[in-house]
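Batch manifest line 210
LIGAND: flavin mononucleotide
JOB: complex structure
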Amino acid sequence: MPHSFGKLAFTPAVKQLQEQHGSRRQYERMESQGVPQDKLTSMEIDFLQQRDSFYWATTGSNGWPYLQHRGGPKGFLKVIDDHTLAFADFSGNKQYISTGNLQTDDRVALIFVDYPRQARLKILGHARAVEGDEAREWITRTKDTHYPARIDRVFVIQIEAYDWNCPQHITPRYTEQEIQKTMEPIRIQIQKLESENESLREEIARLRSK
Ligand SMILES: Cc1cc2nc3c(=O)[nH]c(=O)nc-3n(C[C@H](O)[C@H](O)[C@H](O)COP(=O)(O)O)c2cc1C
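JOB STATUS: finished
ARTIFACT:
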């Protein structure tokens, strides 16, 4: 069923605060007239396929929220279709907090951040851990052949709603690979200058020795 993000996130207490601080009317419009925000467009799909990490939250049977970081090679989170995501659960510390939490509450919240572009996307959905025989097909769909991690299970997420955040307070950060790419022309220039310098030193030494 299509939901706007606000329909799920704006609880009575949230709405009351929006009312109190003058933003309720704007968000009411977003809830009633906004795009459904449950089907990814090419913009969200491109964004998700470029990510190498995200954070996701589950809730324990005791009501405590739990946040975990997930990382992998760029694009390890697979967009199966416009409302389904999947990613491989790599072997880890054997705490199984996220996996256990999903047994009693399948609702999840995810946040994806592109630090260089200062963009972030929040997703709400239902997740299930696929294991055993059923996992084989899903492992094939989510495995990155060049990444050596062992896969224990696959998480499949049905998206209920998503929302983009503003870029405020996101400090641009770059991965080693991104820095290397940016620095490549400078590295080549330094190499060229070093080589020129070396030739000039040799030339000076040769002239001095005459
Ligand atoms: C050897 C090893 C030790 C780890 N230790 C931790 C840890 O202390 N804390 C943590 O949050 N994640 C740790 N991780 C990563 C988690 O095991 C991994 O994210 C796991 O999937 C978490 O699952 P859960 O959220 O279901 O508990 C470790 C991974 C490995 C391989």
